Amino acid sequence: MKLKQLFILLFILTLLVSCRTTDKIIVNKKLIDPEGETILIGQITREALKQSEFNSWYSDEYNSYIPDRNVINKIKNKIKHYRIEIYLGTWCSDTHEQLPRFLKILDEANYPQRKLKLYAVNRKKESFYGEQNQKNIIKIPTFILYKANNNPKRRDMEIGRIIESPNESLELDLYKILNFYRK
């Protein structure tokens, strides 16, 4: 009887250790959605977009897009002072078009990649850890610009967003957001 209790105790301890939570965030998580499509969900890196399931739309659009150089030069020195979050769906045609273009604009403006966060959502606009909560993500992609707050007890302030597709062009919409908000 004691051997059986010991075995059960060891089993439960093993289960608890294997299921314990860690502070490590899972990044670039893939899953098959109800439509049978492989999608990314949760926080992702740009490298994940270059994987075989996503690379054709990502690379084609990124390589073919030619941003307006004059506008890039106008935003180059301003945009680096802001943090950007992008909510996207690897299953979404608007994301397929706008995300690679936006990332190319950031590259040409020498935007610091450490200030960029990418969050993939499912068809219900939900991410893996709920990063979309309280962000009012209705359509995707959604590009949100934040002014960093130096007080750790306060959130960064949102200064603008581009939702689904730009009004004029991504770079011109960015320029207008940056010019509307002054330090």
From TrEMBL:
Q: Which InterPro entries match?
A: Thioredoxin-like_sf
Top-level taxon of origin = Bacteria
Protein name as it appears in the record? Thioredoxin
